[in-house]
Design goal:
Length: about 210
Amino acid sequence: MHRLAHLFGAAALVALVAACGDTTTRNEGTAPAAPAGPTSSSSPSPAVQPVKATAADPAHLTIYPDHIGPLKIGMSLAAAKATGLIVVDTGEGASVFDGCVSAHWKGRPDRVWMVFNGKYGLRALDSFGDQKTAAGIRPGSTLAAVRRAYPHLTWRIDGDETPAARRTGGDALVDVVKGDGAHYRINIQNSKVTDVQLESDRPGCYE
C-alpha cells in the first residue's frame, strides 16, 4: 500500500510521496507478529511480557497448520484443560479408543470434537464458527478455492478410484509445514468444504 506524506514548511508547501511496496509474505505456518508499541525517549520502555492466550472469542481464531489458538496438536490433556477452552466428554462415547479421551470446544456441541492420547497428547481437533485457515479456507469454501490455496493436496485413501483431478468429494489432506507433526483434513462434499480439522501425522485415536 502506498502512503502519502505531507510536509508543511513555514514559507512553502512541499509534497513528498513515498512509495513503500509491501514485500512481506505471510507464512501460514506461523501467527502474524504483533505490531511494535510506541516508544518514549524520556523514559525506558517496560519489559515486554509474553502474550497469554485467552478464551476470548474462539469462534474467530485462525486454523494454523498445527494449532487453533492455544490448542496445539501434541499438547497434553492437562495443558488443554488449563486453557479453559475444552470440556472433556463423560459417559458413553467418552473413550473412542482404548487409551484415548474425547473432548469438545467449551460451549459447543460435543460433535465439535477433539481427541487425546495419554502418550502423544492431542491427536485431532475440529474447527467451528468463523474459524478458517490463513489462506481463508473454511466450511462453505469451494473445492476450486482449496485447490488454489493448496495445489499439493492429496486425497485420503477411501476406495474411491476417481482420478484426483476429477474428484469432487472426500477428505483432502494438506501438509503445509513439513515436519511439524500435523496436517489439515478438509472434508469436501459436492465440491464444497463441509469441515476443516487438524490431525496429527501419527495414526491412532481416530479414523
